[in-house]
Amino acid sequence: MKLLALDTSTTYLSLALSHGDDMLVFHECVEQKHAERTLPEVSRLLSEAGCSLSSLDGIVFGQGPGSFTGLRIACGIAQGLAYSANLPVIAIPTLDNLAHQAGEGQVLVCFDARMQQVYSALYRTGPAWERLSAISVASPEEIALPAGTTLLAGDGFDSYPQLLAQSRDQLTLSPHARPHAAAYLELAASGRYPAVHPRDTELLYVRNKVALTSAEQQQARQR
Question: Which NCBIfam families match (predicted)?
């Protein structure tokens, strides 16, 4: 299948375009410039591949959780591109992406949610791929190590050194700390995620609160 994947859930802009047996990738830290950089880089990838948007089979994007603004940018661009070329959209959770990149085993993913919290979920990866728990949000102190876990993934472990501090030396920490568009293409090829009309695309926020109050920020600094 010919697919375009995009993720703007972190400070990175991650794009991947599959055409035939080839894949073109753009994966770079752009800070807060996703809105300005995404469409020009998409156009460049399409030009390099020698294909048009309308020749694709669909648009894949990271639906969250992650940066609230970043998620809305990705969703809006995915919907806009899909509407303009009459294509379906495939939305994939960011934590599924991180688990996929970690390798085969039982993977605990912890993704920095800011505000002294992490998004987390437990996975079984490999041939019998399964998300073993709901994607949730909690403070690092509330995260327990599930029995049977062999792999850790996500930037939550870098952002919060106290996260599973007593157990981390026994486990393998994946070097892939953030979602990558190439992994979205591999996940989309699995058939686990439905291709829907752009109007039916949904974001996965998990947490509805965007920022801490001043009192909460002061309390966090005192910890």
Answer: T6A_YeaZ (TIGR03725)
